[in-house]
Amino acid sequence: MKRVQLAIIGGGLVGASLALALQAGAKARGWQIVLVEPFAPGDSYQPSYDARSTALSFGTRQIYERLGLWPAISPRAEAISQIHVSDRGRFGAARLSAEDEGVAALGYVVENAWLGHCLWQALDRDVVSWRCPAEVTRLEALADGYRLTLNDEEILDCDLAVLADGGRSGLREQLGIAVRHTPYGQTALIANISPTEQHAGQAFERFTDEGPMAMLPLADNRCALVWTRPGNDAARLQALDERAFLTELQQAFGYRLGALRQVGARHTYPLALVEALEQVRPHLVVLGNAAHSLHPVAGQGYNLALRDTLALADCLLASPAPLGDFATLQRYLSVQQQDQALTVGFSDRVTRLFGRNESLLVAGRTLGLLGLDLLSPAKRWFARQAMGLGTRTL
């Protein structure tokens, strides 16, 4: 039986980012960090037309700059220079630009495989070790930490366990951590699209009667599509041949990028706002999608998780108490509660406002988008939320 100071359950983007944020301080303190991950990271990046991607806010770039990772990420990070927000069939629209906000970009879109590759390459193997491929089948509270039982029957004890195994965390359920689950009654259809015109760094948030869609700029003049539809209709769209699918997408999105000429593999998943009612216990933290899963159209979920990650690392490294101390973990949560409430509320309210079609709401949305485009303070506030700077300064 082995004991380490920190066990991170889930070696994806959130778990690996936490290991990176902690590793210098961990090395100085003699801590050992273990990442337990069922899917082995690749040894090298392999480009793919169908690669899934993540929208990184400007605030997330600042975090990765602080961690020394941004120079590695940036070659495959497509900058968002403008965001165009509109309501299909109505004249209200709002436009946000990096130039107006005085930043190089409002955000960036990065392929998950590239971001993961950069993270995994940056980890110090003297401090961070892997159990991979491996899964934790049982997580048991001890007086001074947690005991992990892996699927190969290995037993691992730790002072602090971080649960970062995603929104469908079985271990979260095993520990009796309740969640607030609020369905949106929608399904997300995800795919990469190639338009005939250059996207020029433009991102589009378009709201339709059937649900919102986002079209985000990717490298190689591709766009990442997130299209929310009622469940049965998402399945129908997924089953269409390429030409029929592009025809329907063109009708919904319009011709701001010219004709849409290619679509890659399409994936669907049902949407809900999921919030864990406990994020900390003595010697335990729930992080990432296991703590809060948001609607993808606003692009806030990973950026909030990364801000949580940095705040947790800062609290752990600043505390003189033993690792896993409950007061330290409560301090972390109190630091992040305002950011979480603001970001979750912003994402949820925007999604619900633009997902309803009552005439008064539609009129209010049109006026709201016009006002947002004309009133500098309102536009500045909205831009700061989109940039992941709602509770922070540049």
UniProtKB/TrEMBL annotation:
One of its GO terms (biological process) is ubiquinone biosynthetic process. Pathway: Cofactor biosynthesis; ubiquinone biosynthesis. Residues 4-318 form the FAD-binding domain. Its cofactor is FAD. Its EC number is 1.14.13.-. It holds the Pfam family FAD_binding_3. It is an enzyme of class 1 (oxidoreductase). One of its GO terms (molecular function) is 2-octaprenyl-6-methoxyphenol hydroxylase activity. InterPro entries: FAD-bd, FAD/NAD-bd_sf, UbiH, UbiH/COQ6, UbiH/COQ6_monooxygenase. Transmembrane segments: none annotated. The keyword Transcription does not apply. Keywords: FAD, Flavoprotein, Monooxygenase, Oxidoreductase. The keyword Amino-acid biosynthesis does not apply. Belongs to the UbiH/COQ6 family. PANTHER family: 2-OCTAPRENYL-6-METHOXYPHENOL HYDROXYLASE, UBIQUINONE BIOSYNTHESIS MONOOXYGENASE COQ6, MITOCHONDRIAL. This is 2-octaprenyl-6-methoxyphenyl hydroxylase. It comes from Aquipseudomonas campi. The lineage of its organism: Bacteria, Pseudomonadati, Pseudomonadota, Gammaproteobacteria, Pseudomonadales. The gene is ubiH.
